[in-house]
Amino acid sequence: MSPDIGLYQTKYAVRRWLDRIPGLDRLQPNHVSIASLIPSGLAAVSLWYGWWPLVVIGIAGRMALTVMDGLLAEAYDKRSRIGPYLNRLPQEIGDITLFLALLPWADVRWVALLLGAAWLVNVLAVLPGVAGGSPQPAGPGGQPDRIAIVLVAAAIHTFVAFDWTWVCVLLVALSIPTVALRIARTVRELGPA
């Protein structure tokens, strides 16, 4: 199988850095997953009000915590039955609130298209599991890619004003090959031999 396209695989490099934090092994992954709602909320509120540096901080915090929970579960053998659910739910809530916070800055139609595209991409990541397949994180419009783009856009907007509708257009455009790639890989894996 070809390597994944997108930022998803970079989590392993981030994990190596996070694993150096003293006392990390005392944390519980489910608590870290839920705690990721705090920087997600900070990012969304800050985006709504145009507090660009706080958007960057919030998204960076969210990304760190959503990588940390997986590290704790896997590297420290702290998996639980509800863990995958608690891992995913705050990320979905974070996506919705972050993209809704674009409403003051972008055309409402493109925000709606972005919400729909993000939902479809996220569903196609986990849907293969229903049929016993592998999760599909591949594609340039995956969850970490989208929030990284918003992070970079907020950092740029700190110094240069631009129309956020174009960020929505970019994210929707990146979703198209992501959807196609995830469907193709799932069909290839689960289809008839």
Key traits:
about 190 residues; mainly alpha
The biggest beta sheet is recorded as: none
Count of discrete alpha- or pi-helical segments spanning 4 or more residues: 8
The 3D shape can be described as globular
Average pLDDT score: 93
Provide structural commentary:
This protein is mostly helical and 193 residues long. It contains eight helices and no strands. The longest helix has 26 residues, at 165-190. It starts with 10 loop residues before the first helix and ends with a helix.
Topology:
Layout: H1 11-18, H2 29-35, H3 37-49, H4 52-75, H5 83-100, H6 108-126, H7 143-157, H8 165-190
Helix pairs in contact: 1-4, 2-4, 2-5, 3-4, 3-5, 4-7, 5-6, 6-8
Short description:
This protein is mainly alpha-helical and 193 residues long.
